[in-house]
Design a protein that fits this description.
Its cofactor is FAD. Helices cover 34% and strands 20% of the residues. By secondary structure, the protein is of the alpha/beta class.
Length: 763
């Protein structure tokens, strides 16, 4: 008996007949409505009675929302692996991670050859498939910066560029029956996908044994390889053979296949709508329940919690991996896992955590916190991983990744209250709100996470019109260090609600924020390039123009230092928006002209477009960029002294990226005491990126600190204690320490510019 502990999946194996091309699409949609997990299709490109399977997969992915789609299996000899890999990654990105690669080495060689494909012997087919795996996985790995080279006998790739990276780790399932192919599965594949109709009694057990042996020799746990099975059958009043009988018989026989032969995914040849509905409504739920009960009684370890010898060797000291609760182990990523490269880094900073936990709700976050407190390693929380300061990853520690909490739900149309998962990105939020012509000020890049920006401040393109992002937050759900799940608002735990808006990362883990959106039509988005030879003069004029502009205008300025072939340049990114209506182009032009007068204009383009086209959905996968250093400060005005100080910073060469963001207008309407972010009179936020902390610190302290008026910690990597008082001027800091003493007295949340609790500070 063999049970690998895989979470059970159920799907359909549909015929891509083209007599009525909408029938297979309708059956796939029925597969989803019935509650099944995947829809798969035969791939016979030489069959004129069939739709092209790849085209059908893309159509079905667009017509569904939840199910995984796959070929069953794709015909490798007629689908070059490099092109197939890019197509698969593209479909995976477009569908939000809903593609699986079912792949076959080829079989009908006369038909394949007739279509222009190669004729291969069985041995050559296996060799070609192994080369194809190297090509496809190489294409999917943009973290490797070297060109892809595979000097194969059947598939040769000579310096191909890698990418795009799929939305998730695409599993490769191989259709196979012979020992050599089975050994290849054990070494390299993610799943075995045979059809029971082609097998004799005992073939499942024999195949599992060959795969398991090859996996162990390769340092893998056999449970890393999912066992899938294509099945045929019919529901009948009385039994007349295997899967030829009543529903109870199906449940019993499928349960036995899971527990005795290790099958984790059942795929049914089901072009019959009634069978699909019965599978989803009666059979699949009952099989899941029966298998779960048997596993509980047997103490079966879930497949997701098992690791091969290579993965075990990559584990880090200070973490008791064996004690990780099963609900977290199912989705956790460790250094030895193939997904590790896609979750270890953040946007700019490289990381090497010992484990990345990916909870799916408040309950699992509580479990993660309980477990993490027992580990002797750093702990970080990640919303989307964009933060410039890099505090959402670490080296050798635990990262709590909230990426699964991505819902965007309107909870009150009248007040435009929107409940947003902390792991969503602001590009996803903007896209979801665009049909209602609503928008929430949210930074300047769609890849920024909701949880980070929505608890720190939120200086965005709509800032002078709407205020900071935290000014729109009306409620939140938080998990505290003690494991309490609290709803916080002005009426519920008001002290924590106050601290949340500006220092939330120090107080707990936010699961969702309830935010009041604004009515915003199309906006004018302008991009200007100006000669910044007279840097100080340009900054003075631009700063004065921004402060005098209508609140609908918010402008960000990015400075590039002089190079050998050109002088310093300034790029202005400016949004002009109006409440409840489209932006007035004439009013926008008049306001933009005052900015253009700040210096010699070299280039300008402006567009009228939705907010969601500016702050747009971005990739969630980050590859890091080393260990950048940053400094950040607020400026009341860009007067003569401040402008000259920034000019000297730029001329020093210490900063390779210098940005000034407008933060006035509606931001000033909020009482400084009403949120933990107390900076309500400054008009600009200055930030600078450098390659070394000591270098940028020296120049910043000499030039900028004399004109600086507060700090915005999201852009700062200098951890010296004086940064806290710049970010949280008294009495804000003392008040934060009191709140911290109430909700996190042991200082569990200390990776985000730690605020010592009042009691701990006194001790």
């Amino acid at each position: 008996m063999t049970d690998y502990g895989h979470e059970l999946q159920f799907g359909t194996f549909l015929t891509p007949a083209n007599a009525d091309p909408q029938v297979p699409v309708q059956l796939a949609r029925l597969t989803e409505r019935a509650g099944l997990d995947l829809a798969t299709f035969q791939d016979h490109p030489y069959q004129p009675a069939f739709l092209d399977t790849w085209t059908l997969l893309t159509w079905v992915a667009a017509a569904t929302e939840r199910i995984t789609v796959s070929g069953n299996v794709l015909n490798l000899p007629l689908r070059p692996p490099a092109v197939l890999a890019r197509s698969a990654a593209s479909l995976d990105l477009l569908s939000g991670g809903r593609f699986a690669m079912g792949l076959g080495a080829g079989g009908f060689w006369d038909a394949i050859e007739a279509m222009g494909g190669p004729r291969r012997s069985p041995g050559e087919a296996v060799e070609a498939l192994e080369e194809a795996l190297r090509v496809m996985r190489g294409i999917w790995d943009p973290h490797d910066r070297t060109p892809l080279r595979v000097p194969g006998d059947h598939y040769r790739v000579a310096g191909a560029k890698r990418g795009p990276e799929p939305a998730h780790d695409i599993p490769v399932w191989l259709g196979a029956y012979k020992p050599r192919m089975l050994r290849l599965i054990g070494r390299q594949a993610d799943g075995w996908l045979p059809s029971l109709g082609y097998m004799k009694d005992g073939d499942l057990a024999r195949g599992n044994a060959v795969i398991d042996e090859a996996a162990a020799e390769a340092g893998r746990d056999p449970a890393e390889i999912r066992r899938l099975l294509n099945l045929g059958g019919a529901i009948r009043p009385t039994s007349s053979g295997f899967l030829q009988g009543p529903v109870d018989q199906w449940i019993e026989e499928l349960t036995r296949l899971a527990l005795e032969d290790g099958i984790g995914t059942f795929i049914f040849m089901a072009d019959d709508p009634e069978l699909i509905e019965t599978l989803g409504g009666e059979i699949a739920p009952a099989v899941r329940e029966a298998v779960a009960a048997a596993r509980r009684a047997a103490g079966t370890t879930p497949a997701s919690a098992r690791r091969g010898t290579k993965a075990l060797a990559a584990r880090r000291d200070g973490i008791d991996y064996g004690s990780l609760p099963a609900d977290l182990a199912e989705r956790a990523v460790e250094p030895g896992d193939r997904e590790y490269e896609s979750v270890r880094h953040n946007y700019l900073r490289e990381g090497a955590p010992g484990i990345v936990l990916r909870p799916r709700g408040a309950g699992e976050i509580v479990s993660a916190l309980d477990w993490s407190r027992e580990q002797a390693v750093p702990f970080a929380v990640r919303s989307a991983g964009h933060g410039i300061s890099g505090r959402s990853t670490n080296d050798g520690g635990i990262v709590l990744d909230l990426g699964a909490l991505r819902s965007v739900e309107v909870v009150d149309e009248a007040t435009r209250r929107v409940r947003i998962g902390a792991g969503a990105t602001w590009g996803e939020v903007a896209e979801a709100l665009a049909p209602r012509r609503w928008a929430i000020t949210s930074g300047d890049y769609g890849g920024v996470g909701v949880g980070g920006l929505g608890t720190t401040g939120g200086i965005g393109f709509l800032g002078r019109l709407q205020g900071l992002t935290i000014d729109r937050v009306v409620a939140a759900e938080m998990v505290t260090a003690s494991g309490d799940v609290l709803r916080v608002s002005a009426d519920e735990h008001p002290d924590l609600f106050w601290a949340l808006r500006g220092a939330g990362g120090n107080m707990g883990v936010v699961t969702w924020l309830e935010v009041r959106a604004g009515e915003v039509g199309d906006v004018v988005f302008s991009q200007m390039t100006l000669d910044a030879t007279d840097t100080a003069g340009l900054l003075e004029k631009w700063g004065a123009a921004v402060e005098a502009a209508p609140r609908g205008l918010t402008s960000f300025l990015y400075l590039a230092a002089a190079r050998r072939d050109q002088g310093p340049l300034a790029q202005l990114m400016t949004m002009y928006a109006a409440e409840s209506a489209d932006a007035d182009p004439d009013a926008a032009i008049a306001a933009l002209e005052t900015l253009a007068d700040a210096g010699p204009l070299l280039a300008h383009q402006a567009q009228l477009l939705p907010y969601s086209a500016v702050v747009s959905r971005q990739s969630r996968h980050h590859s890091g960029g080393g260990t950048p250093a940053a400094r950040s400060g607020l400026l009341a005005h860009l007067d003569r002294d401040a402008s000259r100080a920034v000019e000297r910073l730029l001329a020093s060469g210490a900063s390779h990226f210098t940005a000034i963001r407008a933060t006035g207008g509606a931001v000033h309407d909020v009482d400084p005491d009403s949120t933990a972010y107390a900076h309500r009179h400054q008009n600009f936020a200055l930030s600078a990126l450098s390659s070394r902390q000591s270098t940028i610190n020296e120049v910043w302290d000499a030039e900028i600190r004399p004109v600086q008026d507060g700090s915005y910690l999201s852009f700062d990597t200098d951890t010296r204690p004086e940064r806290l008082l710049e970010a949280f001027p008294e009495p804000t800091l003392s008040r934060l320490r009191e709140v911290k003493a109430t909700y996190d007295p042991a200082n569990v949340f200390r990776s985000n510019f730690p605020i010592p609790p009042a009691e701990l500070l006194a001790a």
